[in-house]
Structures are given as structure tokens and as C-alpha cells.
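User: Structure with S-adenosylmethionine, C-alpha cells only please.
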Amino acid sequence: MRAGKSSRTALGVARALLYASRSPHLADLLPDGAADRTRTLVFAASRAARVEYGWMDRGWYRALVGVNERLLVPGGMHHVALRKRFLDDRVRAVLDAGATRLVVLGAGFDTLALRVAEARPSVTCFEVDHPATQAVKRKGLATLGGGPENLHLVPVDFAEASPEEALAADPRSDDAARTVFVAEGLLMYLAEPAVRKLLRFVRNRSAPESRLLFTFVGVGPDGRPRAGPYQRTMDVLLKLAGEPFRFGVEPDDLPRFLASEGFHLETVTRDSELAAELLPDRSTWPNRFLDWEMYAAAVHRRE
Ligand SMILES: C[S@@+](CC[C@H](N)C(=O)[O-])C[C@H]1O[C@@H](n2cnc3c(N)ncnc32)[C@H](O)[C@@H]1O
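Assistant:
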């Protein structure tokens, strides 16, 4: 991340969500309330996003975004909608099964914790994010009266520290709670030691049977984390944003990697598989799915 600057990629995801919310078939995929809440947070964070929002239904703007998507991140808009829907459904399923705490790591402008906290006052929700990104999110939450009382924001730079100390020192955090952790669009930005530290934090600070839901990218033949079909261009753009990809793991290798930190992999899925289930009308599919960022669910069973 660029020193002292809020995450550009986090704002990019939120803007893509707003754009997706203007397409009928993608809007239906988005979790209830996600677009409204995102709009509030993003409007407080970025004047450019407010202006852009006013253009989102215009033909010329949609054509421009369509070209940009095809040239850089084919399937990107479907990806944002499917990713939000997958994680939302999974988190609610884990909470319905008895988890009482939600911890969203690298939350950016995502609204999952906010919406869960509003809908389920008995669930304690935490967002842990880079201090610079979180400071901007706080401004957005202030426009919502600060957010619900059971939503707590904890600033941590994962490259410097583990959230361990921050959450352990927080009297509102209960390590005995069965917890659902979310790391959406986060692990690829961290170096492997920081990813391992995060996994240990999840394992040490929650009850057995807690779940970690996360997204990840694979590794290309050159050993670098995959960033889609236009790898070089994406590498340059991510570097310019100050958020280069640092970590990837191939899906075949993921069970071994997770087991080395005491986790069992439960599920791996991707857009093309989710679309078959969630978007039965194939005429709404993109030419190409963004299958290089995948979704996974893992569980830890402490001895
Ligand atoms: C692509 S955004 C994803 C945001 C959100 N999870 C979503 O999917 O909408 C990446 C997020 O990772 C966070 N992040 C990146 N590097 C970080 C670090 N070293 N410490 C803490 N957070 C970091 C950024 O602040 C940002 O919120």
C-alpha cells in the first residue's frame, strides 16, 4: 500500500459493485442492501466516485467501462457480484449454524460486517484493515451515525503486525467464540510470512470449528501470483496503485498449504461454477469468466 494512502483497489471493488448494481442480472445477485450501503461509504470517500455514479446509466459510459473490462479484467463485473454473493451466503450459513462472531480482514469498503451487525445484534462484528483505508471507511460510517454498536473497527497493518495483539487487547473480543473470518481480496497483497501469520491468528483466536472464507489467486509458470490473462499490464497497474500481488497458491497445493497451518480445506470454487448455480440464464454470462481469483472455505480443528 502507498504510505498513508487508503487502498485504491478497495475503492475499485466498491465502484465495480456500484456499476454491477446498475445491471439488472448482476443487481439481483448482490446481497440485499449491499449497493445502498456501498454507495454511502464510497460517496463519503471519493468525490470522483460520486461524479462517476451519475454517469453509470449512460450509454457512452457503459460502453467505455465494457471496453476497459474486456481489455483488462474480462469477467470482472460478474466476478464482483458473484464474489460478494458467495461470501455473504457462506457467512450467513456459518452464523445460522451457531457462530457468534464475524471478523472481516482487509475489509476495504465492503459492507458485509455492517449489514450483519445491523441485522443480527447478537453477533459481534469486527473489521480489521490497514489504518489508512480504515480511516476513510470511518468517515463513511460517520454518515450512517457511526454504524451499529456491535460493529468494531480495528486498524492493523498486516505487513507490520498480526491482528493478534489488537484483538487480544480488545475487551469486546471473545476468543472462545465460534467465529467466521473473511479475507476477501486480501491474501494476494501480503507476502507469504504475513499470510501464515494471519492464518495462525485465526487459529489461535477462535474456537475450533471456526471458519475462514477467503479468496486467492494461483501462481503462473514464472512463479508470480496470477493476475489474469493480461498479467504484465495488471502487474504494472497494481504496482502503480502501490498494491502489487505478492502471494499465490495453486488450488492443487492449497490443501497442503492450509494443513501446514492446521486448517482443513472444505471448498474451492470459482465464478464459472457459481454462475452455473446462481445465474441459470446463460445469455447473461460474460464471454469469459474471471476464474483466476478463486474462493475457498477452510475450517480449523484445534487438538
Ligand atoms: C482489494 S481490497 C479488498 C477490499 C474488500 N475486502 C473487498 O473485497 O471489497 C484490499 C484490502 O486489503 C487491505 N490491505 C492490503 N494490504 C494490507 C496490509 N498490509 N495491512 C492491512 N490491510 C491491507 C486494503 O486496505 C484493502 O482494504
